[in-house]
Write a sequence for this structure.
């Protein structure tokens, strides 16, 4: 797959997330995917993403940098959102928070096979720290 | 600058870091650089990198994914190293730790003008947490 085609495929994946089509990711995600060294079925991966959106109803993936190689994508994603229930070990405070995700994806035959994702947990802690559900988690 | 040339330039930058040539980064870094929204002179940026290597003498940048665009680079970097003094808010424990950095770079005229970097602080906390110098930092 050419770089441009892979970038377009990735943008299709993000569009699916931003319209909360979590049950329809078979065009973008393999039957099994490894997320930060955790092996998940696509159903489990979709459930994880749906759970984020359930905890944060206004969650929107804003891709501000996108680089595509032969079978890899790197994306810098910004979020500005308001968690309404516990998420990522943090209790909600009512605050709207802003933070970045830096994610690398390995594609195979045009679909995501691996994801390595880091969130800016320091920024999240600074904005939601008072409501941390599991201190030190 | 073409993608391949930019990737080669980035690898030259990493080679300089891995041979601790922190005082000679003028070929790779602009006179001023913004690192995670902090504006630094190149001297301050070089001092920051030298300080990391001083706290972690066996620090080595192992680039496992590298994507280059017109003026952007994304790199996934792995570290396996042994901090010997306080670093990133963590006191050393003698433990050798492994963690990832996900960094995005904006180049201008072939030199780094901006860096957005995230470290896997959860992994670092899990491995050095007992020696955290500034809990919650």
């Amino acid at each position: 797959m050419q770089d441009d085609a892979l970038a377009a495929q990735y943008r299709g994946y993000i569009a699916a997330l931003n319209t909360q089509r979590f049950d329809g990711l078979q065009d973008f995600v393999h039957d099994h995917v490894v997320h930060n060294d955790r092996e998940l079925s696509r159903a489990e991966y979709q459930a994880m993403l749906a759970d984020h959106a359930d905890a944060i109803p206004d969650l929107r993936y804003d891709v501000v940098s996108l680089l595509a190689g032969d079978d890899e994508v790197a994306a810098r994603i910004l979020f500005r959102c308001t968690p309404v229930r516990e998420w990522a070990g943090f209790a909600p405070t009512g605050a709207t928070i802003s933070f970045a995700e830096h994610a690398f994806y390995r594609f195979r035959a045009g679909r995501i096979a691996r994801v390595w994702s880091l969130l800016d947990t320091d920024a999240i802690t600074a904005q939601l720290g008072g409501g941390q559900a599991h201190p030190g988690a």
